[in-house]
Design goal:
- The chain has eight helices and 17 strands.
- The strands form five sheets. A five-stranded parallel beta sheet has the order 2-1-3-6-7, with helices on both faces.
- 31% of the residues lie in helices and 30% in strands.
- A hairpin with a 2-residue loop joins strand 4 and strand 5.
């Protein structure tokens, strides 16, 4: 059986490779990809493997985007840090998944299920990506009401109404409050998108998630972009891409 691993954390990828080699020595690992871009390029250039072990959160976005660019014929086992509630759609679709940190026994059970599918000539379950993404975004989800941040030896609760925007700098995520305080938050912006009420916060671009109350002016820019001024100010010029501009205006109009 040919296996492809899609995982952007090098230590996690090495651990998965080690477990695969230990549990299924006859499996051949064809490669390890660490992004949507590299995965799409590999899948377009090579025969699709029998099995893909695929992380959901990659450096350049959620791995579901791969399926929008390539008609993947492989069986998929997802690896994810999402909790049991958030991934109920995986069960509905009979798609196997593994919660991080991956347990060796759980991986073995996934392999046994995979081999049973092939042994019985069953077809692999069809991905219902809309259902999965809906579940991950959590229609019934209770969104974060506050964050507990660390400042020195102190733990400080920050209520959502205090937050002007979230941003990332040198791969670290920060909260900026209306009181102009800055705190590190232990989530990527992709993770924050799932935790925040979409009526209260908007992902303006790869670096910023903004509250409507922080907006101090919106200006048309070239190529259909929007430039937004914010209060409190930050060092960056902040733009909303042409692709997101219509959704951004709609979001503001619905508030």
């Amino acid at each position: 059986m040919r296996v492809l691993i899609i995982e952007d954390e090098s230590l996690a990828a090495k651990r998965i490779m080690k477990m695969v080699n230990e549990q299924e020595p006859d499996f051949v690992i064809e490669g390890v990809m660490d992004s949507i871009e590299s995965s799409v390029a590999w899948l377009k250039a090579n025969p699709h493997p029998d099995l893909i072990l695929m992380d959901i959160e990659l450096a350049d976005g959620q791995s579901f985007e791969i399926f929008n660019q390539v008609d993947v014929t492989s069986t998929i086992i997802f690896t994810t840090a999402y909790d049991e509630f958030a991934i109920r759609a995986f069960k509905v679709n009979s798609i196997d998944y593994l919660l991080k940190p991956i347990d060796a026994d759980e991986l073995k059970r996934s392999f046994d299920k995979f081999k049973e599918i092939h042994k019985s000539s069953m077809t692999s379950p069809k991905l219902d990506l809309d259902m999965i993404v809906t579940a991950l975004r959590g229609k019934e989800q209770v969104y974060k009401q506050r964050f507990l941040v660390k400042q020195g030896q102190r733990l400080i609760p920050i209520d959502m109404h205090e937050i002007a925007f979230f941003y990332t700098e040198d791969k670290v995520s920060f909260i900026k409050t209306f009181g102009e305080q800055r705190y590190i938050v232990d989530h990527s912006l992709d993770e924050l998108e799932l935790l925040l009420d979409p009526n209260s916060f908007f992902r303006a671009n790869r670096q910023y998630i903004v509250s409507p109350k922080c907006l101090d002016g919106i200006h048309s820019h070239f190529n259909g972009k929007l430039k937004i001024n914010m209060k409190p100010t930050n060092n960056d010029e902040v733009f909303v891409s042409r692709e997101k501009a219509a959704d951004f205006k709609k979001w503001l109009g619905e508030l």
